[in-house]
Amino acid sequence: MQPNATKTATVNGVELVYDTWGRGEPLLLLHGMGGCAADWRYAGRESLARDYELYAVDARGHGRSTGRMTTHRQHAADVLALLDQVGIQRCRAIGLSMGGNTLLHVASQSPARIDSMVIVSATPYFPEQARAIMRQLTPESHSEAEWKEMRARHVHGDEQIRAIFQAQHELRNSHDDLCFTPAELARVTARTLIVYGDRDPLYPVGLGVELYRSLPRAQLWVVPNGGHGPVYLDAAEPFARAALAFLSE
Question: What is the arrangement of strands in the sheet containing 91-96, beginning at the earlier edge strand?
Fold first, then answer.
């Protein structure tokens, strides 16, 4: 399956590259940290494209986009600028990990822009168990196999990949980027499906329950034996069916 188009938008000083797929109302797809827009081919992209026009975006510093990963707030500002540029006033969205965290910022800052959303392995804040993992993830800690995998995803060379690895490591000390209070989350008007794996090594499932209790129009799907981002490969079709059913309600 080929994209309808691959386009570049200049927003907030960086070039964001995005692919469009399918036909219908717009559905924004935001990948996880270290990933890229192409990852959605393993998470039900073809099924989603039967019902929607997908906008699969490479976040700043990832994939084909330029710049460097800074904060989830900055990613949210990029998303809002991109929506403005392409003329989308309101849309549905799916975000995974970093992408889900970004959607929490978008939906709480500009509630009218997101009609409904699916957030997979997102978190209101970084727990200590995630910070312990981040402390270990230096650029030097990654194997040659991991570097090879990243080179297949990110086109701007090893400097770009090293910046992503370093940004992952620096999240260990990040406290003011993801620090959502129940009052902030209560501003979200979008219907929200929260997807959590009950074996997520970064974010314990209790954080999904916190989101469920704080978001006014939320549903929670806990994936048995699911890890971080439990929607890929064999789980892709069940995820796509659940996401489409939720988004079409």
Answer: 5-11, 14-21, 52-57, 25-30, 91-96, 114-120, 191-197, 218-223
Give the pTM: 0.97
Give the span between the Cα atoms of 201 and 126, in whole angstroms: 12
Instruction: Place domain 5-125+179-247 in its CATH homologous superfamily.
Output: Alpha/Beta hydrolase fold, catalytic domain (3.40.50.1820)
Computed over its alpha carbons, how large is the radius of gyration of the chain?
Answer: 17
Cα–Cα distance for residue pair 60/69, rounded to 1 Å: 6
* DSSP element (H, E) containing 48: helix 45-49
* Tens-digit pLDDT profile for residues 203-231: 999 999 999 999 999 999 999 999 999 99
**Whole-number Å distance between alpha carbons of 124 and 178:** 6
Question: Residues near 110 by Cβ (< 8 Å), separated by ≥ 6?
Answer: 80
Q: Which two tokens stand for residue 29?
A: 């797809």
